[in-house]
Design goal:
Elements: E1 3-8, E2 16-22, E3 25-32, E4 35-40, E5 54-58, E6 61-65, E7 72-74, E8 90-91, E9 93-96, E10 99-103, H1 121-124, E11 136-141, H2 154-170, E12 173-178, H3 190-193, H4 203-207, H5 213-223, E13 226-232, H6 240-248, H7 250-259, E14 268-275, H8 280-294, E15 303-307, H9 318-324, H10 326-346
Helix pairs in contact: 2-10
This protein binds FE2/S2 (inorganic) cluster.
FE2/S2 (inorganic) cluster binds at residues 43, 45-48, 66, 68-71.
Amino acid sequence: MNYIPIFKLSDLPKESQQIINFQNTKVLLLHYDDQITAIGNTCLHKGGPLGKGIITKHSEGLCIQCPWHGWEYNIKTGKAPDGYLDQQSVYDVKIHDDQILLSEQPIVRAKRAEHDHSAIKDLKALQYQTTTDSINILGISTTNMAKGAARESTSEHALLQSLEHAKQHHSASTRLLKLRDLEFRACEGYYSIHEQACTWPCSITDANPNDGMTEVYRSMILWADVILVATPIRWGNPSSLFFKMCERLNCVQNQITLHNKILIQNKVAGFIITGGQDNIQQVAGQMGTFFTDLGFVLPPFHFVGWSRGWVAEDMEKNVEQLKKSRYLKRSVKDLTDNAIRLSKQIKQMDSSHMNTPLPKRIESDI
Ligand code: FES
């Protein structure tokens, strides 16, 4: 085996690491425990740069942790710890005077182990469940009202009316997701590390299919023809749970930016916005902008707003007043009818050539 001088030992102080170009690939040199080791730099998960990660301690020895999603590799053996079977490539190292020499070829080749993705196979393969005849209406309640408490939410009450109307008058299939019941992690900002680190399906879902957003992705992207999103107004904005969900939907929008791939096609979104105080139009604007950016289409008059105004501090009357409101009953029905009608129309459209006037990766430096 040939050995090639590649780096000065004096330039790799103790407790340091260095990414180098070697034989048309990137190799990570490490100097820990008084030993120089070398493993492949490209993470076997999604290609993250291991050399930008941190060193972690395991019973098997020191590991390098990928900065993207945390996969780890032993810095001497290249093996993934904790029973995972992934193997990073390993190079043999020799020291001659002040030179570090690497074996021309890895002495252990990289091998990505099979990982079980059966729980999210449908998301990975984008197995859409909608058909030309389906009328699948997904209600998403974003109120944060305490789980299991005997309290009613005005936005959720209106949403239930809408779903009931869709069932009774359009023979629709309906589904209700209450975000507060779903236990899902906040977006951890992978996109901010590197756009390729924000993946579809979301890497949090990939690592933990039991995360509550799995059901949101499945229902919203694969199953629904129409989504109706209900929110209370909180300090002039949609609920915090609404934003928590939106941040986790970055991986859907990101497919457009990175791959010009639109996951949401021929789907309609409408909104129900209620609040003891006002700011309905701004909330509707925020919601509309977000969902159209994903590819949803809005029906005419795409939201129902209900508010008792700035001086209505007697919030205990909110639910009672909303239930009495003839305007609300009619508007919820009209919104549902409009959304379903539009859904039927746009399903006849060929959306395969849809344009996306959004920033693209290739244009980002212009
Ligand atoms: S953990 Fe390395 S790319 Fe995902």
